[in-house]
Amino acid sequence: MKPEEIASIAHLARLAMDEAEIPRYQESLTSILSFVGDLERAETRDVSPMAHPLPGLVQRLRADVVTETDAHERYQANAPQVAASLYLVPKVIE
Amino acid sequence: MNLHTKTLAALAAGLRARDFSSVELTRALLARIETHQPALNAMISVTATAAMQEAAAADGVLARGGGGPLTGIPLVHKDIFCTEGVRTTCGSRMLDNFVAPYDATVVAKLKAEGMVMLGKANMDEFAMGSSNETSYYGPVKNPWNHKLVPGGSSGGSAAVVAARLAPFASATDTGGSIRQPAALCGITGFKPTYGRVSRYGMIAFASSLDQGGTLTATAEDAALVLRAMAGFDARDSTSVERPVPDYVAALTQPLAGLKIGLLKEFFEKGLDPENERCVRAALAVYEKLGAQLIEVSLPNLALSVPAYYVVAPAECSSNLARFDGVRFGHRAKEPKDLMDLYKRSRGEGFGAEVKRRIMTGTYVLSAGYYDAFYIKAQKVRRLIANDFERAFAQVDVVMGPTTPTVAFELGAKTADPITMYLNDIYTIGANLAGLPAMSIPCGLVQNLPVGLQIIGRHFAEDRLLSTAHAYQRETDWHTRVPPGYE
């Protein structure tokens, strides 16, 4: 992997990374991707991908009814910045 | 009276017989935590005041003739389980200031049984690690030797139980995080079938693999807790709607005639000869008890670690997207815009291993690589699940070592992630296939514990527990306490 690729993945993953950190991730990601590259040698023609470990399990749906009561104050107690029950972030639209 | 070396079952009997109170027991264990925490670093938070109140309440219930077998028994929760009003860090700087607004279902269920929480256990950051060295709160030490790792990611939970600071600690297992530390610390670790224990309030790492379970001294203790922990939960969309059998009553199922599959590939290269000797001795005990040993093969085992290191990071990169510095968790100071807020909050909040996995996951899910890595890994996952299915057509349970070696030194495997990942070669398969699996102590090599792994069919928790219980009635490895913690 090239340093630019590491920087690009870090950007996609929304991870700040300074120049000095890049070589460290470059080395380990290169070795991880080469390690998982072993999967190539598996014969998987006619094998369907397995996303869920329990065979035949169907994702359950629930009735579209309100079950939760308003607890925003409790949840927002953990927020870094709140005003008038709204989460505050830096200005997005100029 | 030495309360801390008693099993959970013995403590439950003692509480009922009024030999001692929950307050006495809780006080004794809190004192042990205070004594041993500086050397072990097994805990992130100790909730002593609340524990004493809960213990007094449990004594009140017991005095009125109420409560169940778990009432008044102290526990420690892995810090991945949300505990209402109590800091829940997941071993990360990201959640250093996070006070959970609700209880995980596991926490609520055990609280309803009258169990007493002593605190929260240290763990690898977001459960990503096999040595408990990725924790923001520093590594946990193995009670058998403080220079060695306890395993991970449930390293704090395992050290707590091994050092007899609590008779039970909750844990989670995504690729071996219950079984591997259980093996390295000489205790019993149980990972149920995927979907058996609710994941609600259990901070997600890889949602198709994560499963909550138990760390205890014995299989009987695991059965006692699992009976209360397991069951359907409407709040977890992958929770299984299926009644929970009485695991305690099932402990005495006869062993004679049991067909045990020996996992051929588990005994090939990489397994330490001394560990192999202990595992084979355990298998001989089973043979003596009337079980039949049959060699079975998992031809795709070698691909389980690479498949896991695509699937788990992919799911992790998606699950950890929620940590954005906006609603909870760490926020960078003076962000210049929203992108800077996201990037620096995450860059500062996550440690190196978590970032590595998020980036691996982002890469394998990105356009152009999705089919070659992610879909391919999901196909290999099916091959591995099929291997187990073929094995279970011939046998009732399969057995092998839990880990290739005994506990290794702190720092020994931190330089190269692949070396660390390969430590989970024997445990990952059960997660990919969603099977219940456990590790029980089966010997000591140079005074360090060795684990025997038992894997069963989906929902065969009762069979696994009775199989382990039969062994523990014949042997005493599960009673060994690390020197200095007797």
Helix content of chain A: 25-40%
Number of helices of chain B: 15
- How far apart the termini of chain B lie comes to 12 Å
Structural class of chain A comes to mainly alpha
User: What characterizes the major β-sheet of chain A?
Assistant: 2 strands, antiparallel
Specify the overall morphology of chain B: globular
Mean pLDDT of chain B: 97
CATH class of the largest domain in chain B: Alpha Beta
Low-confidence regions of chain A:
none
Which ranges of chain B are low-confidence, i.e. pLDDT below 50, for 5 or more consecutive residues?
none
The number of helices of chain A is 3
How many β strands of chain A by DSSP?
2
**Taking all residues together, what is the mean pLDDT of chain A?**
92
CATH topology title of the largest domain in chain B: Amidase signature (AS) enzymes
* Radius of gyration over C-alpha positions of chain A, nearest whole angstrom: 22 Å
Could you give the order of the helices and strands of chain A? HHHEE
Beta-strand share of residues of chain B: 5-15%
Protein chain pair with the most extensive contact, residues per chain: A-B, 51 and 77 residues
Strand content of chain A: under 5%
List the helices and strands and how they pair.
The complex is a heterodimer of chains A (94) and B (486).
Chain A: H1 3-12, H2 22-36, H3 72-76, E1 82-83, E2 86-87
Antiparallel strand pairs in A: 1-2
Chain B: H1 8-16, H2 22-40, E1 43-46, H3 48-63, E2 74-78, H4 105-112, E3 116-121, H5 155-162, E4 168-173, H6 179-185, E5 188-191, E6 211-216, H7 219-229, E7 259-263, H8 273-288, E8 292-296, H9 304-319, H10 338-349, H11 352-364, H12 370-394, E9 397-401, H13 417-421, H14 428-433, E10 437-445, E11 448-456, H15 461-474
Parallel strand pairs in B: 2-3, 7-8, 7-9
Antiparallel strand pairs in B: 1-3, 4-6, 5-6, 5-10, 9-11, 10-11
Helix pairs in contact in B: 2-3, 7-15, 9-11, 9-12
